[in-house]
Design brief:
Distance between the termini: 45 Å
Strand order of the largest sheet: 4-5-10-7-9-8
Oligomer: single chain
Radius of gyration: 34 Å
Number of strands: 23
Structural class: alpha+beta
Number of helices: 22
Strand content: 15-25%
Helix content: 40-55%
Largest sheet: 6 strands, mixed, barrel
Shape: globular
């Protein structure tokens, strides 16, 4: 260690004498270490770092698995039994829905979270100002706001405690402001209001919902498995007491109550990102290997010019250990400098990801370089330096005690460099083919049939200012809005659908049904959505058979429906769809009539399956009913008509003009509703592809960097080979070989490296692509077209990289070679 400062100073002097080598080596390692450090920081921030809550490892979520596939919340009536479980320190129920919020600046739609009595005991975070909600608040008109809402909507008002804001139709008093960074139970901070949960005697909240979501905090030292078992027993007992059957907490459950599930809170909020992040971290590891191979090649080439120096130092008394330590020190110095530059690149990449995707992916707003990332970067730098020094150190030690370099050593070094470049090409092939598969997946998703034509279609989502407004009045508002929108200049068509594609809300009911003359089967269910006349024209939905709704299909006319292809294929058959009668059935257990519609409906048309936010999901059977034929006093009327009215317009007007005209029309036709969203449907579709677009950009970036590094490696090893074989090439030319022969000699060397690398790379694509199988769609795991394109690109890049060394080989002076020999 006493000689380490001297070795470092000597290494820095050597780098100053070879600025070209130093710059290339540092930048090469900076790309590899920077990319890997950035991904380590992402994995650390998202998957490893504890959630910023006290004792976050004890936070869990509770849910039910119904029919073995659908995860749902709990009935309000089950919450007291679960809250009394001894292993749970606190249990909180919650639910969130957007709601109009009126402040001195006007009315806007914000997310309002209804919270049960024990909710704020679960995160155990005090308010920044004022207090949190407690069990004593009950039905009090009070609210706690998030820091983002306080800063952005209330303009950081220091006297906000005690002020009044209107949430929906209720005036509420602000009693607290949560601290900055509080993002519970969501994964990113948002403009949020928390209000007390109000549940009626029949187990329904203000919106008529009977179920809620649960989060809990385990008591210190309690095993999650034991807590799950105890909670399962309490849940079964609650079901038996209410006569609703029994559930289970350990793998078995009744058909009615489902299976109790308990998951870690951190795992729930980051579960979707985990596979993608780990796959990208693996890609970064490949990129780092390429960077290390390139650094080793550069040091082999430079070491060849220093073998004489090493021989002299050995003759003057330097031992093998001393020479080895100096070479490793120089290599690690280069790596540490590369890591320093890589940290700057990683910091910039994280800042970009935090800004671009902070609101889209869980915990991306928390991305930062933490000590673990710094430690990882340092470890990578040292490891890369040691690995890159192995080859030149071996050559230097073999040359120790000799005063000149033997041609055989040049040949051995060139052969080792060739193997390293072949390895680079193999890894680059894997990265490029993976990026190619991501690209083809992205294109396949873009070309999926949507069931409608989204171009020039704008979606509108409204929220009633009074959530308890009479549904008859809301239905009349539908009429006014549609009439006003249709009369606007530049509007080609307007319609409503309670579950517009790619909307914030999917307001559909699932109901049992039967078709007269067809034997009923268990599981005969279909989703039901309400639309208006002009629906197919507005959204550009092609009618496969039959007709669309018209003005005649209104109140008093025979009830009609449009069916999607899945419904027809599964329950009817294509030929007999038009004219088929469908009767809704009741599936309630309390004797009430839960049918969606009391009267039978007749199918008048068949439409294609409509894509949703999950483009790859299979469509469910769907029936579309005319909202004018749905009774405002019927079952689920408030849910379907009054929760979030949605409209669509088709227009070729510019977005700015259309947005202004729509807002003006809504002020006249729906003064009692707030605008939640006005967005072209193309933008909504684009947002659904954001995660795959990010994966494509990262994989493409890694592939491009790897391609550049491979090109540098090919150029370096060929230039090194030409420099080492200058005499040989000159003598060959003096004995009659042509310039073309000299060029073929170099190109043959390049071809052998590329061929070996491609063969290994193609073989390595299978395990690599198996790891990303879950992210692919519409492409084969090993795609011949992608492999052929990647091979062509690598061959082209190799030819360009070999061009300059080949040109230099043709300009060797034969006479000078003979004289030196």
């Amino acid at each position: 260690m006493s000689a380490l400062p001297q070795d470092v100073r000597h290494a820095l002097r050597q780098l100053r004498r070879a600025p070209g080598f130093a710059a290339t080596a540092i930048v090469t390692l900076a790309l590899g270490i920077g990319a890997t450090t950035a991904m380590l920081a992402v994995v650390d921030s998202v998957l490893l770092r504890s959630v910023a809550l006290p004792h976050a490892e004890r936070l869990v979520t509770l849910s039910r698995l119904v029919k073995g596939e659908r995860e749902v919340g709990f009935d309000y009536k089950d919450v007291p039994a679960l809250a009394a479980v001894h292993s749970l320190e606190a249990v909180g129920s919650y639910g969130s829905l957007p709601s109009p919020v009126t402040t001195p600046d006007g009315t806007r739609v914000s997310y309002v979270m209804t919270t049960g009595p024990g909710f704020f005991r679960v995160p155990a975070v005090p308010a920044r100002m004022g207090r949190v909600l407690t069990s004593e608040d009950g039905h009090r008109p009070v609210t706690v706001v998030s820091d983002a809402f306080w800063r952005k909507t209330l303009h950081s008002n220091p006297h906000v405690i005690g002020s009044a804001i209107k949430v929906g139709a209720r005036m509420m008093t602000v009693v607290g402001v949560m601290p900055r960074g509080f993002a519970f139970p969501h994964s990113s901070e948002a403009e949020m209001l928390y209000v007390p949960e109000t549940v009626s005697a029949d187990g329904k909240d203000d919106h008529g919902f009977t179920s809620t979501l649960l989060v809990a905090r385990l008591k210190p030292g309690v095993d999650p498995g034991a807590a799950l078992s105890e909670a399962g027993a309490a849940y079964r007992q609650a079901g038996a007491s209410s006569g609703l059957g029994s559930g289970s907490g350990s793998g078995t459950g009744s058909e009615d109550r489902g299976t109790l599930l308990m998951r870690s809170y951190r795992g729930v909020i980051t579960g979707q990102e985990r596979p993608a992040l780990l796959a990208l971290l693996g890609a970064c590891a490949l990129l780092l290997l390429i960077a290390c191979a390139n650094s080793a090649n550069l040091q082999i080439a430079r070491g060849a010019t220093r073998l004489g120096e090493m021989s002299v130092r050995s003759a003057l008394g330097a031992g093998r250990g001393r020479l080895l330590r100096q070479i490793v020190t120089e290599s690690v110095t280069v790596s540490v400098l590369g890591a320093g530059l890589g940290l700057v690149l990683a910091w910039a990449a994280l800042a970009w990801a935090r800004s671009a995707y902070g609101g889209q992916f869980a915990r991306f707003d928390e991305l930062a370089l933490h000590p673990l990332a710094y430690a990882g970067s340092t470890a990578l730098a040292v490891l890369a330096g040691v690995v890159a020094a192995l080859a030149p150190a071996s050559s230097a030690l073999r040359a120790a005690g000799q005063l000149q370099t033997a041609p055989a050593r040049i040949t051995r070094g060139s052969r080792l460099s060739g193997l390293l470049v072949a390895g680079e090409i193999a890894l680059t092939c894997v990265l490029l083919t993976t990026a190619g598969l991501f690209l083809r997946t992205f294109r396949a998703l873009e070309q999926l049939p949507l069931g409608f034509h989204p171009a020039h279609v704008t979606e509108i989502t409204l929220m009633p200012l009074n959530p308890h407004e009479d549904t008859r009045a809301i239905a009349q508002t539908y009429d006014h809005v549609l009439e006003r929108l249709a009369a606007m200049p530049g509007i080609e068509a307007a319609a409503t659908q309670t579950s517009l594609p790619f909307s914030n809300f999917t307001l559909q009911m699932t109901n049992g049904f039967r078709i007269p003359g067809r034997p009923s089967q268990k599981g005969d269910e279909a989703s039901v959505s309400l639309v208006s006349a002009g629906y197919t024209r507005t959204l550009g939905v092609p009618l496969l058979r039959g007709r669309d709704f018209t003005a005649a299909d209104g109140e008093g006319a025979p009830a009609a429906a449009l069916a999607n292809e899945t419904f027809v294929r599964r329950f009817i058959g294509a030929r007999g769809a038009i004219g088929t009668t469908v009767e809704f059935t009741s599936d309630t257990k309390d004797g009430s009539d839960g049918r969606f519609l009391q009267v039978p409906v007749t199918i008048i048309g068949v439409v294609p399956d409509q894509a949703g936010s999950d483009l790859t999901a299979q469509a469910d059977p769907l029936l579309l009913l005319n909202y004018r034929q749905y009774p405002p006093t019927g079952a689920h009327a408030h849910f379907m008509l009054g929760l979030a009215p949605q409209f669509a317009v088709r227009s070729s007007l510019s977005p700015d003009i259309l947005d202004r005209e729509i807002r003006s029309a809504l002020k006249q036709a729906a003064p009692d509703m707030a605008e939640m969203r006005i967005e072209p449907i193309d933008e909504a579709i684009d947002a659904t592809l954001s995660s795959r677009r990010l994966a494509l950009r990262l994989a493409g970036s890694f592939g491009a960097i790897a391609l550049v590094l491979a090109a540098v490696g090919i150029y370096g090893v060929l230039a090194y080979a030409v420099a080492g074989r200058t005499k040989e090439i000159g003598i060959r030319m003096a004995l009659g070989s042509t310039r073309q022969g000299a060029m073929r000699l170099v190109l043959r060397h390049a071809a052998l490296m590329v061929a070996a690398g491609l063969a290994a790379g193609i073989a390595g694509t299978w395990p690599a692509h198996t790891a990303v199988r879950a992210f692919l769609y519409g492409v084969r795991l090993v795609d011949p077209l992608t492999l052929s394109v990647v091979a062509s690109v690598l061959l082209a890049v190799a030819a360009l990289a070999a061009a300059v060394p080949a040109w230099r080989a043709t300009h060797v002076d034969p006479m000078q070679a003979l004289r030196s020999e």
